[in-house]
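Please describe the entry underneath.
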Amino acid sequence: MEDPPNWMEMPDEVMANILQRLGTKEILNNAWKVCTTWRRICKDPAMWKVIDVQKSDNDVEEHLDLERLTKKAIDLSCGELIDISISGFGNDDLLDYIFLRSGKLKRVSLTYLRGKACWLTRAPKRFPQLEELHISLGFINVEDIEVIGRNCPQLKSFTVNKVFQWSHNDDHALAVANYMPELRLLDLCGSNMTNDGLEAILIGCPHLESLDVRMCSNLNLKGNLGKLCTERIKDFMHPNDSSENCRYLLLSYEFYHELHVFLQEWKSGARSTFRW
């Protein structure tokens, strides 16, 4: 029988492709400790052009551990990072660390972060190549959207999902319409915009191919506006479409909805205890 192939003789690019499938946490916690060959491959900046760190429901890591791993991955990228996704942890300090060391970013996805997103007023000026920005359940104001739009002319895909609000406000929608004319994909799931804001987006973003307005309860699309959206937008998601794949947003909506109901009943004396 022939001897089995020696995996140590595998070309570096093939081994790197295999290791990358493990994910950022597994590589830094385990894989690069296996042998000197793997460690050498894992220290190659080309390994870290894409970084994805997500805190799952079953994770026991503390926020600081995940932040430490993320910073280590950023250091290893040596400025070659083009795509980063962070979910379930992080703050302004971590984001500043990332963006000050990553001038080639083309895609950023941030979900359920702590902090006030102070980095948004500074970071976009460093990323004229940014094509995708996705922020779910993170703080973002109208001025942030304006800064992003002015400094990221190649932005094609933008997501800003917020916890459901009971007020009617088109400020965010108008900022998108005025400062992001090249968008192809726009996700405003959970927005509190009205028909006026949606109409402004259709005018200001003529290249839109995908638009998500699920859970936008202030919209009324029974008339001509709904028909226009369906005809113009190839992939249009209506306010009442299923939101099963918006887990973080859906849970936050349910929490704040219950809190809103409780406050109304508390004011009337009907309830004195809030449970979630």
Summary: Residues 247-268 form the longest helix (22 residues). Strands lie at 50-54, 83-87, 107-111, 132-136, 157-161, 185-187, 210-212, 235-237. DSSP finds ten helices and eight strands in the chain.
